[in-house]
Structure formats: C-alpha cells, structure tokens
Amino acid sequence: MNGFHLFLVILGIYLIFLVAVGIHFNKKDHSPSQFWLAGKSAGTLSIGFSAAASWLTAGGMLAVIGLYMLLGLGSIWSFVAPNIIALLVIAFFVKKIKSLPSITQPELLEMRYGNHLRLPVAIIITVVMILFAVADIKGLSFVLEIFYGLDPVYSALIVGGAVAVYVTLGGLSAVIATDTVQFLCLFVFTLIMAISTLTGASQATDFSVGQLLSNTSNDWWNPLSVGLPMVIIFTLAIVPGWITEQDPWQRVWAAKNEKSARNGMLLGSLLISIVFACCAIIAVALNVIYPDIAQTGFPMGMAQAEPALLTFIMDSHLPPLTLALCAIALAAAAMSCADTFAASGASCLARDIYQRYLHKDATMQQMRTINRISVLLIVICATAGSFFIHSIIDAIHIATFIASASYFFALMGGLYWKRATGRGAVASLWTGFIVQTGLILFDLSKTAPMAPPYLENIHPLLMSHGVIVSMLISGTVFIVVSLADKPCDEKKLTPFFAKEKSTATTCNIADDLPQVASTTQN
Fold first, then answer.
1. Inter-CA distances, 221 with 68, 200, 209, Å
2. Which of left, alpha, beta for 519 (phi over 0: left; psi -120 to 50: alpha)?
3. Which of 113, 194, 366, 476 is 20 to 30 A from 504 (CA-CA)?
4. CA 337 to CA 132: how far, in whole Å?
C-alpha cells in the first residue's frame, strides 16, 4: 500500500465518522429550525469551536504563514486581525441579532425592507460563499498536489463529496458537531508543526529556540510596521464584510441563549488567535530554513511562501503514516470551512430562492433534496472558480470586498437606523455590488502576474480592489436615498426597534411584505 492509498483509507475512516454524525442528527431534524439552526440548542463550546473552525481553512493558514514569512507581523491586518476583530464585534451585536426571528440574512432583510431585497441578497451571499469555498479547494489542492502529486480536480472531488454527504444528512447540527473535531485536528497539527519547524531551524543553525526568536528583526515583530493608515484601510476594507458574513449570524441564531452566543464568539476569537500565533512561530522557523524565500519579497515570493510548510514536511521525509495524518489534518481544516460555506450558501438557494419564490409549500423532505442539490452546485462552482483565481488570499478578499460594498449598509443600517428605507437599501446594494465588481475586474485585468495591484499603485485608498471607494459610494447612496424617501411603516420597524416609538406612517417600497416564509411540514 503506497502513501496515497494509506491517506485514502484514513480519510475513508474519518468520513465514516462524519457520516455517522450526519445520520445521528438527521433523525432529529424534523423542522427548518432544527435543520438550518441546529434546533437553537448550541452551547458556548459548540459555538466557539464551530466559529473558529469555520474561519480557519487549510488554504488560509498556508497563506497566512506565507504572508508572515514575507511581511512579518505587519501582515496580520490583511487577514489575521480582521478574523479576530470580526468575531469580537459580532459578540457585541449578539443581543440584537439573537432577538430577530429569522433563519437567514435575506429573510431578515425582507422583514425589514420588503421583498425587493431578498432575492438579490441571497444571490450575492451565495456568490460570496462560493468564493470563500474556492480558498478551501485551492488549499487542499496545494496539500495533495505536493504530498501525492494529485490533480487539483480530484482534490476538489474529495472535499466536495465529503462535505455534500454529511452536511446534507444533518444540516447545521452536523456542521457544528464535526467542526469541533476538525478544529482540534488543525490545532494539534499547527502545534506540532510549530515545534517541528523550530527544531528543524535550530538544527540547521545550531541556535537555541530562544536565539532563533530573538534574532528575528524587531521590524518583523512589529504589528504596525505597515503604518497606521494601512492598518485603518485594511480594517475598514475587510472587517465590515466579515461581521456581516451569514455563517456566524446563523451560529448566533443557533445558540440556545444570548450568553452562549456571545461567549461562543469570544471563545472563537481566542481559539483563532492561538492558531495564528502558532503560524507566526512556524513562519519564523521557515524563514531560517528557507532564507531565499523571504529575500524574494512580496508579492513575488508568495508562490514559494504559501506552500513552504508543505515543502518542509516533504523535505522531512516523514513515514507514510505520519504524512497521511498531516494530510488528514489539513483536509479536515478545508472541510470545516467548506461545509460552513456550502451550508450557508445552500440555505440561501433552498430557503430564500426555492422555497420563497418557487415552492412555498415545500415539505421538509423536498427541502432536504433541494439543499443537497444546492450544496453540490456550490461545490461545483467553487471547483470551477479555483482554476481562475490563483491566490488563496485574493479569493477570500474578493468575496469579502463584495460583501462589504454591497449589503453591509443595508444589513447593519436596517438593524440600527430607523430612518433606513427599502429604496435606500436597494439602491445601496446594487450600487455597491456593481461598482465593486467592476473595480475588481478592472484591477485584475490591469495587474501583471505577481505584480502589485494596479489600483494600489494609483493611490493607497484604491488598494484592496478599491473597496474603500465602493463602500463610500454605497454608504452615501444608502443615506441619501433613505432620507429622500418616506419613512417605513411602524409595523415593519417593531421587530427591530421594539423598545422605541416610531412616528413613521408609510413605506413606499414594501407595504405588501409577506411574513417570514411559511414553515414547512414533514
């Protein structure tokens, strides 16, 4: 039995466990709330581990290590810090989110503004989830290609097939339960890799671990080395998209109470911080082992820096079983994110599009079938997208920027600004989406391979595919159109501002708003 066959055997055993979990929860899922929100019974530990696992992908971890190697801790603002900050911010918003009777964000926006937003937001969220899944597929493709020379198509089939089986069997309950196991696999792997790479670097230089860490330049350790303006730009560009990402909101709704949701998000941010700290140690050691990579610089060096940890593992000539276990840990990380994005995107396709517009009286069994098809569709689209988007971080950022520019203001403004109207939300969403998508396509088309982004060279405010400009335009449109429009009717505002008195009388866009889509029957 060769190494790849051994990997497949261990993966098969792992998948049997995941399928058993899915079957277990499938017996309990007799309502939409149980299927999409885990019966609203998740506790602090479940929410915390799931929140961390769903934002820690194998591809993202490899990209973070690569950024650390080339840019030092100053690179945290492009991925690491926004992850941690976003979960902390969501913990702050838990009380508001938890009080709203909804299963998906498009459904929530329909309650607030009317039926003009639900379909486009469902489509945009699905696109965003597909782009996030691209990063997972790219990450696992790196792993299996370097470890076993496997074609990326087969890597995608492994992730997609596994995710489709256990997610569709048990809904969000299965996702949350398996996320705990998958996070622990990734955590143990990063901890072992931190020790192994430090040991390898120490042997290569005859330095102690303490000397290796102290010999790293102060600039490398400085989290503000990119400058305060860049920190602000990165934070404004990324955090809004992540705090409005649907999957952590679904976990808040899935929590058994407000305290569990808040503490779960805080725990998730802590767990992510620990893993990223291990990644920083790994990067320090890899810079000692492979000094030529850091000298290449950013962004040219990313082609070597992203798979540097995998290269180290292969250069260590590990036994086939140990190599297979490393591959399983990274595959588990890829699946923990892919299942989240597939489940979140599928809930939009199934509940917000199919059930809302095509078949309002669909039974639970019919919804499960549509959900399975939706999961497969998302995985197929993500697989196709992985051949066009070559940078893991870029795939994640593109998805984030689209979310930030399109529905951030409509969603957060609807929760906290009584004067927000349906017309303002619709205008803001389409303006932000069109402008941001156009800037992304323009920037990508004008940027030479492995060169700094074209728009960034024009002006720093245009970095990150011009998302700051898109958000300014989208936010301005949201405020101006809302103020020019008549206030919404008080009955539309009651679920969102129950303790406040509304003097509004009419709403121009959605007086015919239906209630939340009808609950399906078995």
1. 10, 21, 16
2. beta
3. 476
4. 8
Digit-coded pLDDT (tens) for 172-201: 666 777 778 778 888 888 899 898 888 888
Eight-state DSSP code of residue 488: P
CB 176 within 8 Å of CB 42: yes
**Domain assignments of the chain as residue spans, ordered by start:** 3-493
Please give the backbone phi and psi of residue 409, each rounded to the nearest 5 degrees, phi first: -70, -40
> What is the C-alpha R_g of the chain?
23
Tell me the one-letter amino acid at 400: T
**Closest C-alpha to 366, from 16, 3, 32:** 32
Burial of 493: CB neighbours in 10 Å, binned 0-12, 13-18, 19+: buried
Superfamily of domain 3-493: Sodium/glucose cotransporter (1.20.1730.10)
In the predicted structure, residue 340 carries a pLDDT above the cut 80: no
- Lowest-pLDDT range, 28-37, 365-374, 501-510? 501-510
Of 11-25, 214-228, 426-440, minimum mean pLDDT range? 11-25
Tell whether pTM > 0.90.
Answer: no
User: Which amino acid, one-letter code, is at 18?
Assistant: L
Task: Say whether pLDDT at 478 is over 90.
Answer: yes
For residue 505, the 8-state DSSP code is -
**410 with 428: CB under 8 angstroms?**
yes
Residue 27 scores a pLDDT above 70: no
- On the question of pLDDT at 415 being above 60, the answer is yes
One-letter amino acid for residue 168 of the chain: T
